[in-house]
Amino acid sequence: MNATVGRPIAHDSALGHATGAARFADDLPEPPGLLHGALVLSPVAHGRLDALDIPDLPGVVRVIAAADIIGPNDISGSGKAGEPLLTDGVLRHHGQPIALVLAETRDAALRAAQAIKPAITPLPALLDPEEALAREDYLMPPQIITRGDVPEAFAAAPRIAEGRFQAGGQEHFYLESQIALAVPGEDGEIAVTSSTQHPTEVQHIVARILGCDYNRVPVTCRRMGGGFGGKESNASWIAAAAALGARLTGRPVKLRPPRKADMAATGKRHPFLFRWKASFDAAGRILALEATLAADGGHSLDLTPGVVFRALTHALNCYDVPAVRLTALALRTNTVSHTAFRGFGGPQGVLLMEDVIRGVARATGLPPETVRERNFAGGGNGTHTPYGQALEGDLIRRVWAECRDDARWDDRRAEIAAFNASHPYLRRGLGSFVLAFGISFGVRHLNQAGALVHVYADGSIRLNHGGTEMGQGLNVKIAQVVAETFGVPLDRVRITATSTAEVPNTSPTAASTGSDLNGWAAHLAATTIRTRMAEVAAALWDVPADAVCFAEDRAFVDRPGDNRAMGFGELAHRCWIERVSLSATGFYRTPDIHWDPVAMTGEPFFYFSYGASVAEVVVDTLTGEHRVLRADLVQDCGRSLNPAIDRGQIEGAFVQGMGWLTCEELVWDAEGRQRTLGPSTYKIPGSRDVPPSFNVRLLSDAPARSDTIFRSKAVGEPPLMLATAVWNALRDATGVERLDLPATPDRILRALRGSSRSQSGGITGSGDDLRRN
Ligand code: MTE
Ligand code: HPA
Ligand code: MOS
Q1: What is the arrangement of strands in the sheet containing 190-194, beginning at the earlier edge strand?
Q2: Phi/psi-derived region of residue 230, left when phi > 0, alpha when psi is between -120 and 50, beta in every other case
Q3: How far is the CA of 510 from the centre of ligand 2 (A)?
Q4: Which domains does the chain have, with CATH numbers?
Q5: Which ligand is nearest to the CA of 305?
Q6: What ranges does the record give for the region Disordered, renumbered to this chain (predicted)?
Q7: Which residue from 223, 228, 446, 660 has its CB within 8 A of the most atoms of ligand 1, so it is best to mutate?
């Protein structure tokens, strides 16, 4: 019919992003009297703050410390975790905020923050997650999922394999670093502009720190220059610091930490340690699995419980193992508190079975792909996750079969073998991966959304919803949904900034649910208005309301031989004259999901997103350097709302996943100082790292539940995990047994040389004290 939904439509800000016309928080005109903030950060990983002497510094208006905080000094989402905004006297990680400097210029603020030298007594720091694991130093009790009789399964086991490995963290490296602007208004109101995925949490935490009601804190976000999970919780304390400054001085305050401070003070993807033991038969069927997944949570809880939950529920990925015992731990270390990052523990969780599959393949002499296929859920194997939710075995097999065909798997295996036999030191390798990723927030109450739609008397439409735009194309998708619902062209719909004053009590834009949740809410709001408009037209034409249809920018009577019709704008005007409301809210909550936290069973996900990938790499065995030469991806997006946007998400996520697994390495030194605080030492993938042959395909005729919005499926996070094929390809090329992540050139070289320190230790010589995560 109209088809705005399902069409490859450009991002609404594509031109604005490219030309610079799109305004980010730092581009807004600065209000008169603006003060600039800068943070004084802890120079130690653990210590006691003895004194904070403030020298007289040029341009400085005020320096704020914990004692100046009006409400509770707690920035945790729950408000109960006691995570301080500014140190309460104990320093728990390098880069922890100690004080906020406010000055007339940003330069003056930054210079002053550097000049302040707090008196600190250093304390012994717990830096190594292995040590935290040995000491059982946890941030929360272990989470355990079990199924079947595991001891019995091991006692009867035909064969047993074991393994251990680790995966590092990841810095978000959003191009726009964290920023907030707080402007004091009348009667104690503080208006906040924040680069945040979670305006409602910004509102809550600002209000807590200021000791005021939520209704005094309107929060706005037009767009972020990337979030990737890094602005789900961390944006809140940046905004709270700015708001506190604004309240205490009565002047507007902007806080935009430089990249280095942003990297030091905000959390990253959780590094993980893995241990496993599996029993299997000669055919490669895995019969029992016992595994521990230990996340380094850093010094405080933040979103770690949710990350650990997702790692645990994704540890078997799309595979069936009859008897399992999976234990997930949250280790406490004197490191920055790790947080949400695209995939939210899922990417770490799905690594487990990849290592098990390789271990079983090695022990049985079968190709890893055969072991993979024999252990897929469904098709004779079990059909349910160990926590009790059904997986669609057909889709798992379909994405894999199609991807394997796209990649010409068998031919290329032979080509690669021939290449390797002929080259003295380059080795090519082929790796695969298959994914089932659960869509919904692990926390039940976050699975809700609201929208506010106005139709004006000229038929133009204003759309507001609870989701935030971070580059992922959420706004254009929701605008497509609204245009489709009214049967009008997309340019009738005006996209507006997310605001807690327009749609309250929102969830973070996270867990890939942005378009699922807000799409439904906006559709429901638009449907309410359309129904009222249909009634006005029906009365005019003397037909039943359900005979009035909307398409091609018109309302018309949908009956053979009846040509009566009216422009959408004309009908809107008529509704106004007839005193009919053209404004409505929509509200949606995800049906059916449930979880029993005691039994650790339930159906926490509305549905699963499926995908498969094949990657080819070449490794220089003399240097350890490597490249991804080709990648073939098949991603299930249901009936995509916008295939152009979804393709961009798949490409970007894959390359971001490659970065995590191959080149992005966080290094802390023996004192717990981060040594990788900028692009010169922390390497994210660049345009030349994109595979030269990059074949991305959306699964065609993809089935989805009938009750997803226009039968679409989420896409934001799942394709990041498809990069796991690169890890497998590197192991295929090198033949090494254990390859910790990120698989940097030096780590590959050490693994190839079989060095005993290859997996845990430092680089060389003076670098030996560097702890790598
Ligand atoms: N894409 C861009 N360009 N920038 C981002 O920050 N964040 C990712 C993903 N895609 C991100 C992105 C993450 S972590 C999530 S959870 C989803 O987008 C959130 O948006 P969605 O729910 O609308 O997909
Ligand atoms: N994903 C991302 N963010 C979240 C989640 C999740 O599953 N749960 C709570 N915050
Ligand atoms: Mo995405 S990690 O859920 O913000």
Answers
A1: 60-64, 97-103, 35-41, 253-255, 180-184, 190-194, 219-221, 498-499
A2: alpha
A3: 6
A4: 33-124+178-256 (3.30.365.10), 272-442+597-772 (3.30.365.10), 448-589 (3.30.365.10)
A5: 2
A6: 752-773
A7: 228
The CB density around residue 521, as the number of other CB atoms within 10 Å, is 28
Which stretches of 365-456 are DSSP H helices?
A: 368-375, 393-406, 409-422
Ligand nearest to the CA of 230: 3
DSSP structural state of residue 599? T
Q: What are the tokens at 30?
A: 């600065």
Amino acid, single-letter form, for residue 132: A
Residues 6+ apart with CB under 8 A from 339: 229, 230, 232, 233, 234, 266, 267, 268, 302, 303, 307
Residue 642: CB partners within 8 Å, gap ≥ 6? 5, 6, 7, 8, 9, 473, 476, 477, 480
Residue nearest to atom 4 of ligand 3 (CA): 229
CA distance 164 to 169: 17
Residues 560-597 have pLDDT tens digits of 999 999 999 999 999 999 999 999 999 999 999 999 99
Task: Provide mean pLDDT across the span 339-347.
Answer: 98
* pLDDT given for residue 762 in this prediction: 35
- What number is the average pLDDT over the span 206-234? 98
Which residue type occupies 284?
A: G
Q: How far apart are CA 83 and CA 297, in angstroms?
A: 13
Q: Indicate whether residue 305 lines ligand 1 (CB < 6 A).
A: no
User: What ligand 1 atom has the least distance to the C-alpha of 344?
Assistant: 14
State the pLDDT at residue 516. Answer: 98
Residue 501 Cβ < 6 Å to ligand 2: no
415 among known catalytic residues: no
SS3 194: strand
Mean pLDDT for 371-397 is: 97
Ligand 1 atom closest to Cα of 514? 22
- Tokens 């990253």 belong to 268
